[in-house]
Amino acid sequence: MKQVLLAILLFLGCGVAQGNTYYIAQSGLDSNNGTSKTTPWLHAPGMTGATGTPASYSCTAGDTFILKGGDTWAAGNFPWNWTCSGTSGSHITITVDQTWYDGASWSRPVMNGSGTYPGSLAGGGVNKCFLNAGGTYIDESWLEWTGMYWTGAPNTSACYIEAGFSNNTFNYNYMHGWTHAAYPTTDDAGVGFYGSISGAANGTSFSYNVCDGSDTAENSFGCAYGGGTWAYNVFNEYVSVQVDGTVSVHDNLFENALNSFGSAHPNTMEDDGSCNAVFYNNVVRNTASGSEPFYIGPHTSCTAYVFNNILSQIGSPNMITFGSDATGSAHSTVHYAWNNTIEGGLDSDPPAYNCYNVSSSTYVSAVTIKNTACASSLGVNNAPAGVTITTASNNLKTLAAWNALGYTSTQPYAFSPTSGSSPTIGVGASLASLCSTVSGINSAAGTACGLGTTYAVIYNTSNHTVTSPAVTPSTRSTWDQGAYQGVPGSAVPPVVPPPPPPVLLNTSASWTGYSPLPTVTVVTPEAGNWIGAYGKDGYWLAQSVESLPSYATASISGDSVWTWETSASDAIDLEVPGGSARLAACWYAPATFSFNVNFTDGNTHQLTLYVLDFDQRGRTETIQIVNAATGAVLVTQQLANFTSGLYPTFQISGNVKINVTCTAGVNAVVSGLFFGA
Predict the structure, then answer these.
(1) Residue that finishes a domain, picked among 205, 234, 265
(2) In angstroms, rounded to a whole number, what is the distance separating the alpha carbons of residues 677 and 674?
(3) Using alpha carbons only, what angle is made at residue 387 by residues 383 and 392, rounded to the nearest 5 degrees?
(4) Which of helix, strand or coil describes residue 443?
(5) CA distances (Å), origin 21, targets 69, 92, 141
(6) What is the C-alpha to C-alpha distance for residues 278 and 494, in angstroms, rounded to an integer?
(7) CA 318 to CA 653: how far, in whole Å?
(8) Least confident of 21-30, 254-263, 496-505, 599-608
(9) How far is CA 39 from each of CA 26, 31, 48, 457, rounded to the nearest angstrom?
(10) Which pLDDT value is given to residue 125?
(11) pTM, whole model, 2 decimals?
(12) What's the number of domains the chain is made of?
């Protein structure tokens, strides 16, 4: 399993054009130009206390603002009112450069309320947040947020980040260390991310963040509120996560959720008004009494899809509840729940609760429940009058019966099958048609529907980072019951067939065709072992050695370079000639970069690229071969699924330009060029 990228320079989306780059550090001065690490500003634009250029600066779409690792901005710098916006092709980026830091090693820049900010919440009716992200097309990442304190009878919320605008991303943040004074209210005032209920429709996402209250009094804090995509996050020792709008909630770890001091919104995950939302591959565990694990309440005439989730050690009498939206008014909703694994209670209090709790016909018209593995002495679901409930292929057993078969909450993967003969293996109903329906709503969810659970993520509590997936999911060729497909830990990634050979679009230039072998090959786990397979005549490795053949010249333009890791054993890292080390590095660009390769001897030669999605960011990209003289496009090849590396191979003569373009994920990457077989 690869570690999610720590040595990241910029968290950018496809098509993000580079603007100006500015540096911010505690050693800086606002009178500096901010354009280098040696002349940083003290404040970012919009921070309280900013003077000079950062106080008056008007952002340009594509600007990047880099905060120095290990530095701390205290309460006097907040609120940080960010008003700049990017565009769909040129985002504004607030992030880090992990080669630039104070101290012995890099750590996140810290936004610290010092135990005083924002203070009183009484009056005003305006949220009091550290960062008010009041723009669109903003990508923020890799910051630490701590020291929030609030007091007074609130009619508003304190929050670390207000994220209520569209097309923004918030990633790799670490939120913790909140405190509050006692006050006479039942409301919960502290929030990590305070978003907009229209966030999903407008493209807002929250990924790989950690909200961890283990260093706090824990109560009265909701890690998240709002719409959007919530994926690969960790929520630990908190009161609630509340989502609204059209949402996707997947691959999150919800653990140790607590009841609040005022008993308001004590829900591990609460949906108060979604529409056609998907909830999948989440893990919920170790919740306190009164903290309802999954409460799902879509708007009227809307549908929710819930699958591949695992709930264990639940202190509430309700596991997955289908109920009303925030309005509480009568309306009609439809729900589908399948392939979930649910323990209906606690080990210490043998489960005696339904795995699904269906509200009255006032709010719910129909529910379909299939392929559930349910540990309960009561039932899979209740059956309120007037609600049409369809069930099939559910497996209900008492906790003792499951335990006797090897399914327990203390397994590395809770309530998972232990062998190919375990009773949930191969006995589920095929729900491929339902996956097709989900694909029409959310393509990523449709893909996940045809696989077993990922078991969410792994939380590294030492550096508060997240890796994913916790389990490599297997294809549901024959369907199991419960969230797992097969025995986790021995699962083999689904085989992805190689893309078809490139299409020859123009034959007027010096293009002689391609090898009869597949132009793109899905490699083995020994993906980085190129020596002896490619590069007989020469090679060029990103951030490493260059040895070009006598018959070729090569150059690159529009790129930046980055090194992910050096290692001796990581198979997907490229071999480095003349030594035992391996290297994972790349040329990259958020939109497009280009190689110029000229074969000067008039012959046709094999040229191979190595592309690697090292940090598993879902990259897809296009390789386009262009006649350098005429600009005619000779061949176009789309690449995807290259977390284990791909070697696109071409037969070329003459002078060509190779355009590498990001089509999904964070940027386009190439790690090496190889000349000859």
Answers:
(1) 265
(2) 8
(3) 65
(4) helix
(5) 16, 10, 15
(6) 22
(7) 67
(8) 496-505
(9) 11, 9, 20, 39
(10) 57
(11) 0.73
(12) 2
In a domain, 95, yes or no: no
Tell me whether residue 415 is in a domain: no
What is the average per-residue pLDDT within 304-333?
86
Residues 6+ apart with CB under 8 A from 483: 281, 307, 308, 309, 310, 339, 340, 341, 373, 452, 453
The strand pairing partners of 575, in sequence order, are: 582
pLDDT band at residue 260 under the 50/70/90 scheme: low
Residue type, 210: V
Q: Which domain holds residue 560?
A: 503-675
DSSP letter (8 states) at residue 440: H
End-to-end CA, the chain? 30
Q: What does the DSSP 8-state code read for residue 75?
A: G
Exposure letters 94-110 (e unless 16+ CB within 10 A, then b): bbbbbebbeeeebbbbb
What single letter denotes the amino acid at residue 524?
Answer: T
Closest of 627, 608, 611, 619 to residue 674, by C-alpha: 608
Length of the chain: 677
pLDDT digit string, tens, across residues 182-224: 755 545 568 888 876 544 446 788 999 999 999 987 667 888 8
State both tokens at 327.
Answer: 């309005």
| Distance between CA atoms of residues 557 and 645, nearest Å | 23
Given 219, 249, 265, the domain boundary residue is 265
Quickly tell me which residue has 């830990």 as its tokens: 489
Give the CATH number for residue 522: 2.60.120
pLDDT band at 39 (very low <50, low <70, confident <90, very high): very high
Torsion region of 657: left, alpha or beta (phi above 0 gives left; psi -120 to 50 gives alpha): beta
